[in-house]
Automatic annotation (TrEMBL):
Species whose genome carries this gene: Brassica carinata
UniProt superkingdom: Eukaryota
Protein name: Neprosin PEP catalytic domain-containing protein
Domain Neprosin PEP catalytic: 114-370
Signal peptide (from-to): 1-22
Source taxonomy: Eukaryota, Viridiplantae, Streptophyta, Embryophyta, Tracheophyta
InterPro entries linked: Glutamic_endopeptidase, Neprosin, Neprosin_propep
């Protein structure tokens, strides 16, 4: 239990890397207000500047590609705006020095997110902690919410391991965090924390290695009117290199291997992760008001797609065999039932189960959600 509590008290063929080349972008694309992507030489991206990656060789794709799957019926998968970077370059969100410094500080002093001892943080999700596990994947809905400048709301899948007071952790999903991103939009994101408590978001500082030429790890999402959109993410350990990949699995289109967190960043994830999970998390404002989670509605077991949802949650075991998450001992994590809810998906008689192992979660938040 101590290991789990330490872990959950976190969050919020190769080519030799060359040095000495110019980091001037070969091309830049402005896709919206205050959002510009620079096309940087893949070998000169900031992710490779981490001192632990001095001799790292870039892995261009996972050793074993994931099979492309059809999406569950009725799912509208997000169509991200692709950044058409030239060959040999990758898209990197342009940040100010101040933003990069803030990202480093937040990464090292990350707001605890899955701990009942974390003031103002609330969660609703499921987790399995009898690893080792080699990966986790899920379909999950993204939402557009109206939250305060100092509130945070997000949904994610994650893997991690802990020992004594040390924790290694990786998560990816969608997030609304106005004070961090500079606006109230929904963004995709990735986060890691590794050796010596170091960590970071996205590509704001060194660590994550972006590989996709067109799909960045961090990107604002434009929602069609009155529509929600879905992500299908897969965090998985490479069978040969031990690196931890983030893949966006396709639905009617090819999978996108966005990039990876090199194994050198971690000291507790060499042989898999001890814990995997999925769910929603919020951080209250300084005044004590908690934001909406999911789509702001309590779960309705009879209408699973009308609230926040993770479907087809699956886990890779220590031998890279894929199972539904409930194949393993799985527990519910819900710390504020007055403001948020969670239900495990049920089977409907005479209806095929296209959702696999799924959960509904979310709620309206408020000022009486506890600490």
């Amino acid at each position: 239990m101590a290991l789990v509590m330490n872990l959950l008290s976190l969050l919020f063929s190769g080519v030799l890397v060359h040095s000495g080349q110019s980091t001037i972008p070969l091309k830049s694309f402005k896709i919206g207000e205050n959002v510009t992507y620079d096309c940087i030489d893949i070998y000169m991206q900031s992710g490779l500047g981490h001192p632990l990656l001095k001799y790292h060789r870039i892995q261009m794709k996972p050793s074993v590609p994931r099979t492309q799957l059809k999406s569950p019926t009725g799912i509208n998968k997000v169509q991200k705006q692709k950044i058409p970077c030239p060959d040999g370059t990758i898209p990197v969100w342009r940040n100010t020095k101040e933003f990069t410094t803030n990202a480093q500080v937040l990464g090292e002093n990350h707001v605890p997110f899955l701990s009942p001892d974390s003031p103002g943080t609330h969660l609703a999700g499921v987790r399995s902690q009898n690893g080792p596990y080699r990966g986790v994947e899920a379909w999950f809905k993204m939402f557009k919410l109206d939250i305060a400048q100092d509130q945070v709301s997000y949904g994610h899948i994650y893997i991690g391991s802990g020992s004594n007071n040390e924790v290694n952790f990786i998560s990816a999903g969608w997030m609304i965090n106005p004070s961090f991103f500079g606006d109230g939009r929904t963004w995709t994101y990735g986060f890691w924390k590794g050796k010596d408590g170091k960590g970071c978001y996205n590509t704001a500082c060194s660590g994550f290695v972006q590989v996709s030429q067109t799909v960045p790890i961090v990107q604002p999402i434009d929602f069609p009117p009155d529509r929600s959109l879905w992500l299908h993410y897969f965090i998985h350990q490479d069978t040969n290199t031990g690196n931890w990949w983030l893949t966006e699995l396709g639905s009617g289109e090819p999978n996108v291997d966005i990039g990876y967190w090199p194994k050198e960043l971690f000291n507790l994830l060499d042989n898999g992760a001890n814990i995997v999970g999925a769910g929603g998390v919020v951080q209250a404002s300084r005044s004590g008001s908690s934001p909406e989670m999911g789509n702001g509605q309590f779960p309705n077991a009879d209408h699973p797609k009308d609230s926040g949802i993770f479907t087809n949650i699956e886990v890779l075991d220590s031998n890279y065999v894929q199972h539904k998450m409930n194949y393993f001992p799985t527990e519910v994590v819900l710390d504020s039932p007055k403001c948020y809810g969670l239900t495990i998906g049920k089977k409907f008689i005479f209806k095929p189960n296209k959702l696999g192992y799924y959960i509904n979660y979310g709620g309206p938040g408020g000022t009486s959600c506890g600490v």
